[in-house]
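Exercise 3.2. Students should predict the tertiary structure of the chain below and write it as structure tokens, then compare their answer with the key that follows.

Predict this chain's 3D structure.
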Amino acid sequence: MITLHTWATPNGRKISIMLEECGLPYRVHPVDITRDAQFTPEFEAINPNAKIPAIVDDDGPDGQPITLFESGAILLYLAAKSGRFLPASERGKYEALQWLMFQMSGIGPNFGQTHHFLRFADEWVPYAIRRFGGETARLYGVLERRLAQADYLAGEYSIADIATFPWVARHAWQKVDLAEYPSVQRWYERIAARPAVMRGMAVPEVSA
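Answer key:
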């Protein structure tokens, strides 16, 4: 059994979507980051970086429990465990990995900063809003150009799409109109209609 330590954030939902898509049995342990639950000694014993998500798999690669943090590492682990959502060919695998890294290094950090300065900052900081808002728009442009060429980021549905979708799902938080990015919008609507994605986006059962 896999225990998913998570909260209702894009990074957390990457993993709940992946678990639902793979059909792997799991239970949810909510970590309420609005109450700083990620900083408890119990959670920091699982993730020393005190961030969600993290998993504990009772049936690790050697039959022993394994604990993993960092959403990209967890996605790769679950892809290997299930044999799904990472292309089998060497070329396809690296295509998916480069778009996964694009999400991890670009989309997640910049979209997250845009969310922060537009929704949560104690003061309005025009420079930060221009800086991160502009980079968010640029990254949407990268996605648009790629998705004008292919249905999915790696050509087939993969962990790259699973990692990126929950961040694009908060386009309203970024003040982004998906109609301005028609290829991204088609991709978004296609993935949003997947039953496993719907279930994964509802984990954990709290408002977000």
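Discussion points: Residues 2-85+197-201 form a domain with the Glutaredoxin fold (CATH 3.40.30.10). The radius of gyration is 17 Å.
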